[in-house]
Amino acid sequence: MSDLTRAARLAARELRGGLSGFRILIACLALGVAAIAAVGSVRQAIESGLAEQGAEMLGGDAEVSLTYRFADADERAWLADRATAVSEIADFRSMATTPGADGTRALSQVKAVDDAYPLVGEVALDPAMPLAEALAGDGDRPGVVMAPALISRLDITPGNAVEIGGVAFTLMAALTEEPDANASGFTLGPRSLVARSALEGSALLAPGTLFDSRLRLVLPNDTDLDAMQAAVAERFATSGARWRDARNGAPGISSFVERLSAFLVLVGLAGLAVGGVGVSAAVRAYLAGKIRIIATLKTLGATRRVIFLTYFLQIGALAALGILLGLILGGALPLLLAPTLGEMLPIPADFGLYPGPLAEAALYGALTALIFTLWPLARLDEVRAAQLFRDPSGGRGWPRPRFLVLLAVLLAALVASAAWLSGAVELTLWTFAGIAVALVLLAAAAAALQRAARTLARAARGRPALRWAAAAIAGPGTEALPVVLSLGLGLSVLASVGQIDGNLRAAIAEELPTRAPSFFAVDIQPGQLDPFLDRVTTDPAVSRVDRAPMLRGVITQINGQPAAQVAGEHWVLNGDRGVSYADALPENTTVTAGESWGEGYDGPPQVSVSAEEAEEMGLSLGDRLTVNVLGRDIEAEITSFRAVDFSTAGMGFILVMNQAALAGAPHSWIATIYAEPQAEAAILRDLGRDFPNVTAISVRDAIALVTDLMGSIAAATSWGAGATLVTGFLVLIGAALSGERARRYEAALLKTLGASRARILGSFALRAALLGAGAGLVALLTGILGAWAISHFVLETSFRVIWPNALAVVLGGLALNLAAGLLFAWRPLSARPAQVLRARD
Fold first, then answer.
1. In this structure, are 8 and 93 located in the same domain?
2. Cβ(243)–Cβ(61) below 8 Å
3. Which residues span the domain enclosing 584?
4. 528-571: per-residue pLDDT in tens?
5. How far apart are CA 354 and CA 361, in angstroms?
6. Of 644, 453, 631, 462, whose CA–CA distance to 554 is shortest?
7. For the chain, which end, N or C, has fewer CB atoms within 10 Å of the first or last residue's CB respectively?
8. In the Cβ-directed half-sphere of 175, how many Cα atoms lie within 13 Å?
9. pTM for the whole thing?
10. Is 589 helix (H, G, I), strand (E, B) or coil?
11. Taking a C-beta distance cutoff of 8 angstroms, is the pair 611, 630 a contact?
């Protein structure tokens, strides 16, 4: 009979005794795996929904977009030859205004559509009518349909007049469903739909104004999208065109979901690490109860291999059960919550059972179980039978080198798997580094807490309950390590999330309003600039006005090579960016390297680049950038780098060229207005009356949108951290259960010596409170340290301790451990001393 067969038979006999001692192990693994599986399943459901409805969300099989201009006849004909249908829309921001001098104004994201729109999907209106009929209007004015939120904000009803950028429309219906609503990505205002023909000749779509034109294509079924994309790139190589297709109809949403879910999976891994502490504690407690059986097996000639395999197979089977339960729970939860999640999500999601996320969660669970069970099993491998009979606590030494190597390999496999499957290598490495540092700090804190407890026990003479509690923490078999590790790690994650969220909200609520402008005014035509400045600069409530010419350009090449090949997937290269020009850089510009052109320079094009972004892209002085502006390639030499502070929400451009390079191109102006809050309404009213085509964007409204988005992210992260804390609470229960025998003996001994039940209970409560408070304090320190590191190195924001959040973490740790301790204090107190002491003998 082989060793594996013998071990399997012995493990099967052991398992007949039931799951006693392993319920916490199963629960910890199940909860951690379930959290990761659920997050992954929701992510896969969203990705599947985006893939299935990609054409509808995009508005066609593919899209070619241009900036500041529409496709010319040749470009449109080239696309029409390769498509079965073509639709061209314009997308821009503008102010919607009710008639009258005191009319209500609201920012809207306007879509000007042609007769072919929508190529895919259906537009739903209330009252129901064909879109063409609604946009045709009432005979006096063209029609507009608006999102219900915009209608409510303007306080109008169908049939009322409304102006968009000075063009009069009649509101015909509410826009209740827009098939390509998510194709535009992040927007600052609710949607309005108008006929593109209604805007012909207006300043809203004049050359140089800020609008995107998008040509949606329906392609033949046998079209090779990759080949079509390559052909478009070649045909529009000098036009600054951008391509999207139905394989990724909403790339911004898809990228956001992918990154958020990757982060939540990593938070789930932190929960698994907490669960791993519980797994390790459960295995140690179980093996401690099997010491004499192990010693007997060794005495009877069982080899180390047989004994190791016996308990490895047994614990492996139970761990597999925990993982299986976690997969069932994690796969079922999204299905059960599908109706609720479907209503909450603004994007389609196809909920179902997806093997990929379940396999990923199972892999994480299996590796975690292996890592945390191998150590206590390996430590028992070298202990002799005689030593086990003398020392029932089992092995205390380090495992053999081969086990240490295997543990290192398993840990590396876990990190590599998380990095590969999450797609966020750097974030994964930082997360694991943070977890490792936190575990080391928490283990050191547990040792320090034990030393402090020894000192407290000596100093607490005359206070029996406190002295007993301190002595129990400091003595052998203490629960200090598992309690501080499990509770501390969960609280550390919550503390970090709370501190980061609090600091970001404080920065937005307190710092930005003192430095940020009140408005951005865009689409100021050159002929409107002087009267515009006369209105705002002469207002005593306006403290500052900045303005600059504004164009949009796409960096297509760096030193004659495709920009993406040189600088990778940097965000500056992802679409078009703001470009400005200046006869000479303003006096308050901080040039960090190089020299700028002087006034009157009219030589070859030169460009000044934001220093931080240039460093990230690996640019140097003397490099040549090719920027496509309105379909024209402009190659300019980098002659200087500038410090640009985007955190003030003021005006800042990645690229600034000399005036001669761009002044001849059609363009508009942008201005930032710093005004007293009480004057903002009057400024908006006057600008809307005198410059109807100018769009004024409230910085406070934009900040509110970002704040809401941050709140959603923080809430999602807090739920993930909450699952980690629940796992930690299960570990606390496991620690309390494993120490119940020692507390029963302690209570019996104290009762025999005359201690009352109330005093013994007070001692147990003090022990739990001291451990919980200690874990909370250490978690607070590690959480603050982690939050500071993320704020300083990743977010690059200022940091201060948010004390209400900090105190909540400490109090939470105290309350959780106190609850777990008291929950399992009653049975030891109710045991009869004589019975307990006789059993101990």
1. no
2. no
3. 542-675
4. 899 999 998 998 988 888 888 988 888 888 998 888 888 887 88
5. 12
6. 631
7. C
8. 27
9. 0.66
10. coil
11. no
